[in-house]
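Sat 14:20. Reprocessing the chain from the morning session after the first attempt stalled halfway. Input below, unchanged.
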Amino acid sequence: MKKLTVSKAMRNAGLLLGLLSGVAATTGASAADVVRDKWCGNVHIRFFVGGAEGDAFGTIVYNGARQAANDTGAQVEYVFSGWSQEQMTQQLREAVAAKPDGIAMMGHPGDAAILPLAEDAAAAGIRMIYQNVPVPTAQAKFGSAYVGAQQEPQGRALGEEILHRFGLKAGDVAIVLGGFDDSTRGAREEGTAKALEKGGVKVVRLNSPPEWATDPNLAIPVITATVQANPTAKAIVYPGGQELGNAATYMQAAGKKPGEIINIGFDTSPQIVEAFKDGWVQLTADQQPFQQGYMPILSLCQQIVYGLSPVSVDTGNGFVTPDNYKNVADLASQGLR
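Finished this time. Tokens:
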């Protein structure tokens, strides 16, 4: 076999290294071209925030959506509904007629109201995704995704945590607020009520209309009267961050001191953090509304630009308590948790 001289071997090695360098350079340039800023910049989305502007929960959803729009470059129009199901339905009708590329819709109106409009959207080639309240029929029929807590399971988990954490027992009384006149909207709180009843607790169900989320002070006379009618009540469970953040007002109106009645609910907010600090609130289930704003826009962009599958995310993520609320306090004050 003919031996290579040292100089020829070195020349061959240099040639090989040059070839490899060329391949690496080509690969690197290709990868750099794929990674783009504002990659969703040509996509128009209508995003339903749910509440009115400035709403405690809706503000966090809105901030998540704004961050996603900033990160992706998507052109997003925000829709505020004051938690009114009728208004959401009409606004969805208008959104479909406007023919954006995608719609991120709050599921509060339920399948019966949303399904025909979802059919119109699908016929027009509009991608839809849902947040906060699932609409299982529309999701299944059109392959849509859902970003939010799973309603009944999260409610049931909260009820079980109440029994475990506070030692409520058979014969104790708890007041549970919820949208019990609407099986879709009230599924979470019904899950809590049933878990408490399974533990032997007597549950007083108090219907909570959507208007109370818009203006929690509207609930003062009803909650006060319910507390007075049930003087042995050990706990009150609220259906959202708006009412839970107003717990101090309700308790003071009922003549109660911090901790005299256990106040429990869902979500975090600056008001809820302050209520934890002052001893008015003892437990809340976190459903991470920032993700409910961010992920729908990200998923719609991925579907429309890259043809990827829709992404569903369960945002229910444990509990905030007097022991750990400080971990989210700064973010809550910024409208992010």
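The mean pLDDT is 91.
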